[in-house]
Amino acid sequence: MDTFPREKYGPWALITGATSGIGRELARQLASNHIHIIAVGRRQARLDELATELKARFGVMTLPVQADLRDPEAIQTIISATRQLDIGVVILNAGAELTGSFVHGSETDHLRLAQLNAIAPMQLAHHYGRLLATRGRGGLMFVSSLFAYQGVPYVAHYAATKAYLLSLGEALHVELKPYGVDVLVLSPGLTNTEMTANMALDFSKLPLIPQQPQQVAAVGLQALGRKATVVSGLLNKVMAWENRLLPRATPVSLLGFLIKRALKGGAGPEGRVA
Questions:
Q1: What is the C-alpha to C-alpha distance for residues 167 and 185, in angstroms, rounded to an integer?
Q2: Which structural domain, as residue segments, surrounds residue 69?
Q3: pLDDT of res. 50
Q4: 244 CB contacts (<8 Å, ≥6 apart)?
Q5: How many domains are there within the chain?
Q6: Which of 5, 26, 82, 107 minimizes the number of CB atoms within 10 Å of its CB?
Q7: Residues 6+ apart with CB under 8 A from 28
């Protein structure tokens, strides 16, 4: 993507989960528009690799921030590291999944998933949303999921956390618009990333067409400032809007049947966290 309006948003973008998948492609596409990147991730070596790549390819600065958003202390680490920077775009992309029976999964794993997928994005949106509103311009993007549009048995908690982001982002789109802040919820379908590769699901048994991270990132950046929500991929768009038109029990039951059939380890405690 080479048409993102740097002059509208400003010189720096913060991206969580920046070292792989959709987050890495968002960093690359923003950097190609001469926007400096604050890259948040768990793995220092990958952060350093990304910084080297973005400098060599696009000549931009990268501030690597090593932080694990499953740890509540990570929020303050990010805030402290970015206090002096003029941040114009914040993209809340980091996330993980938990597949299998909800009741057979570890409560600790569920709490960590909630912290990473829902609580941390809320805290960062609250802090940076207020800064952007005071600044009088900016962009805030939540990366949700196609699974946010209905309950999804055997991926129940993951889908619920993504539904939280969808609802929060839709509301903030209205709340922050008078302050000059654009808010978008990007909901990808199946995307070829490390997370999906590690999921305990056989995706060949699901009616989903995988997309590449480059495609998803471009859809999100093009929609920021134009829409409140966007679903990447035509088939995914159809599925999302069908789910809003049909009685909720219909897609939930259908997805339960399909996901259970696609589970690699069955529906019991074999489900795992990516």
A1: 9
A2: 6-262
A3: 98
A4: 149
A5: 1
A6: 107
A7: 53, 54, 57, 58, 217
